[in-house]
Amino acid sequence: MSDGTAAARAFYGRWAGLYDLVATYVPGVGELRDRAARALALDRGDTVVEMGCGTGANLPYLREQVGPDGTVVGVDYTRGMLDQARGLVDRRGWGNVHLVHGDATAPPVSGPVDGVLATFVSGMLADPAAAVDGWCDLATDGTVVLVDMALSDEPVAAPVNALFRALTVLSTPPTHKLRYDPPPHDLLRERVESARDALLDRAQASHREERVLGIVRLTGGRM
Ligand SMILES: C[S@@+](CC[C@H](N)C(=O)[O-])C[C@H]1O[C@@H](n2cnc3c(N)ncnc32)[C@H](O)[C@@H]1O
Q1: CA-CA distance, 42 to 22, in Å (whole number)?
Q2: Which of 75, 94, 183, 203 has the highest local Cβ count within 10 Å?
Q3: What's the rounded Cα separation, in Å, for the pair 82 and 223?
Q4: Is the pTM of this model over 0.90?
Q5: What is the DSSP letter of 158?
C-alpha cells in the first residue's frame, strides 16, 4: 500500500461520521446522487456495483433503481466508511444490498454486471484510466457512470474555484500542510479528466453533464 493510500484510508476512517453528514445533507447532493443513479439506465432486477461506496450515500438511490429483486454491491477499502454504510443497510433492512471490503481498482466482484457507479473516487486513484477500463470490462453490456469535482474552466467560476482550491488543500492528508507539490487540485483535475477520457474511449454512447459552474461533472457511458 502506498503512503498516499494509507493516508487516505486513515483520513476517511477517522472522519467517516462527519463525511456521512456532508455526503447526505449538503444542499443539492441528494438530487445529484439521484441523477447519477438514473443515468445508469438500470432496470428492475439488475445488478449494480458502486466503487468506493463510502458511507453509502448513493445506496438508497441505487436500490430504488434496481428494486427489491435487484442487487446492489458497494465496494470500499476504508472500514470506518463501510461501517457507516453497513449501519444504513441494517437500519433499512435491505437484504439485497451487499458491502464488500476491497480495492475498487481490482474489485472482488465477478461480472458481468449491469452498471458501475463511482462518485468522488476517480480523483483518489493513482491510475484512474486503468481502473475505469476494468470497470468497463465488468459492465461489458452495461453502463458506467462517474461523478467527480474538479476546477472549472469557466471564467465565471473563479470565486468557486478559489473556494474549491482551499477545500482540497484543507482536506488532503496530512491536513496540516498548506503547500503541496503538485497542488492537490491540479492532481485531482488530471485524474478526473483521465478517468472521464478512459470512459469516453470505451463507450458506444455517452452522456455528459456539468453543475456548479462546471465544477461537478457527471459522465456516463454505455458499453
Ligand atoms: C470521497 S469518498 C466518496 C464516497 C462515496 N462514493 C460518496 O459519493 O459519498 C471516497 C471513497 O472512496 C474510497 N476509495 C478510494 N479509493 C479506493 C480504492 N482503490 N478502493 C476502494 N475504495 C476506495 C474511500 O475509502 C472513500 O470511502
Answers
A1: 27
A2: 75
A3: 29
A4: yes
A5: H
**What residue type is assigned to position 140 of the chain?**
T
Residue showing cell 457507479: 117
Report how far residue 82's alpha carbon sits from residue 73's, in angstroms, rounded to the nearest whole number: 12
- The three-class DSSP label of residue 218 is strand
What is the per-residue pLDDT across 126-142, written as a single tens digit (0 to 9) for each?
999 999 999 999 999 99
- Statement: residue 183 has pLDDT above 80: no
Q: What is the domain partition of the chain in residue ranges?
A: 3-222
In terms of Cβ atoms closer than 10 Å to its own Cβ (0-12, 13-18, 19+), residue 158 is exposed
104 lines ligand 1 (CB under 6 A): yes
- For cell 441494517, name the residue: 90
Name the residue of 119, 121, 135 whose CB sits within 8 Å of the most ligand 1 atoms, as the mutation to test its pocket: 121
Give distance in angstroms: CA of 112 to centre of ligand 1.
Answer: 22
Q: What is the CATH number of domain 3-222?
A: 3.40.50.150
- Give the mean model confidence (pLDDT) for residues 64-68: 98
Indicate if the pLDDT at residue 116 is higher than 60: yes
**What torsion, rounded to 10 degrees, do the Cα atoms 38, 133, 57, 187 define?**
-120
CB 222 within 8 A of CB 206: yes
Q: How far, CA to CA in Å, does 157 sit from each of 28, 45, 191, 209, 221? A: 18, 41, 20, 16, 26
